[in-house]
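call fold(seq) -> tokens
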Amino acid sequence: MKLLNKILLVGAASFAAFSLGHAAAVVGQAAPDFTLTDINGQKHSLSDFKGKTVVLEWVNQECPFVVKHYDKSGNMPKTQKAATDAGVVWLQVNSGSPGAQGDFDPAKVAAWQKKNNVASTAYFRDQDGKVGKLYDARTTPHMYVVDGSGTLVYAGGIDSINSGKTEDISKATNYVNAALADIKAGKPVSTPSSKPYGCSVKYAN
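ret:
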């Protein structure tokens, strides 16, 4: 009976993924491809960056946890700059529905980026939530790292301390930095997954 239940559950998950027209993101497997238009009107597909390491960051500028890592500390921009200076592609995704908390129009996003010295490659508004749900993005921030072969090698929180306090940043392990260091060294990512923390992603439903 247990085996039958397991088979049914796996079958239901596979059917759900098939119904959505794509497979869901799983660490250790190929990162699902997607195409989104950035705030400058340019289309990008994840597959465009094959051969490069890519970081995906789910963001909501009005979330207190995002404010912690941007306005209050500059931690996320510093992490972005170190990564992009090393040739990493950094993509920000906001999956908030139209009018939701943090759903800024392109001009407001650009102003926020300038104010906070954001060093990302592109920023996307995923207002129908398709890409967010494809990656099971649950919080802001929620971080993903895809290596040059297109494999999802990390998914989880930005760091190891679930806290809204800026003073905890220096005490925490930055999992994105650690994953990028492992990739650069040609080693398996030592912490491939962690529990994300932050505000819930503001999906339409």
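The domain at 25-200 is CATH 3.40.30.10 (Glutaredoxin).
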